[in-house]
Amino acid sequence: xxxxxxxxxxxxxxxxxxxxxxxxxxxxxxxxxxxxxxxxxxxxxxxxxxxxxxxxxxxxxxxxxxxxxxxxxxxxxxxxxxxxxxxxxxxxxxxxxxxxxxxxxxxxxxxxxxxxxxxxxxxxxxxxxxxxxxxxxxxxxxxxxxxxxxxxxxxxxxxxxxxxxxxxxxxxxxxxxxxxxxxxxxxxxxxxxxxxxxxxxxxxxxxxxxxxxxxxxxxxxxxxxxxxxxxxxxxxxxxxxxxxxxxxxxxxxxxxxxxxxxxxxxxxxxxxxxxxxxxxxxxxxxxxxxxxxxxxxxxxxxxxxxxxxxxxxxxxxxxxxxxxxxxxxxxxxxxxxxxxxxxxxxxxxxxxxxxxxxxxxxxxxxxxx
Length: 369
Known about the structure:
Number of helices: 16
Oligomer: single chain
Structural class: mainly alpha
């Protein structure tokens, strides 16, 4: 039954171009080029734990000491008094409504104000320190800088970087090289590491959105590798890593209280984001996959699926661009970029969340602390 389902899922009529079989794409000494091996998709999993270990070492011996030298403190908020019943209620849901406050106050012989105060202390207790957030942003910045630099280095002499038609000419028998192999494996491993470490990283309100985003990215990388669409995959990776360097650098500067540097980096990030995500991505990559590809090679169902996902990513870029421009506008009117660039989780409100939303009135505050 499992074999039948797998055969149906990996139907050659769906995943491969006309008159092509999986045997044609199987690597071997009889092939004129080195083809992708689908079993290599298992390699990013152990590599992900290598990256997690590397990250922990860098945070402990490099980022944290560097952050402290910049004056970032690793202070923790005051702990809430021990109260097993309130703790149990908190673990059930970190959000609490006014009715629950009243019920807990009566049950524990406390005033509503005492329950609310305990709840705020308990939520603050879970809030990571500025140093922890600085280390996280520094790690991402360093990795994106490395991955973008490495990607630019390995793609510089590849003809498809400069001519999008080369992504389709000769498809699907397009060989891979060791440098492209490492670029794909390390990129996949990084997104696996983000998916795993997300459960103990700084928890933000877009936790599940980013979780789905990471899984979708891994799926796209994996399927494009299996179907030999790695040339387009490398271009997408390169375009997306570029702006992320500046975003995490701006966040790290914000945590270190270098406000002018943060504002400058964010301004440059906004420009680079628009150029890469709303310029190069749609007018070079999407144009190539949507206009040029059908002219050069017969299309097949999987290609339409991949291209649809790339177009959906463009829609997300537009949405994110609107949010970025809103932040930039508020920064200009306020004179500086206020708060965290990405707001914290819905459980823990930070200064950015407060600055980007109107202050709730007293009645709303009592309904949902």
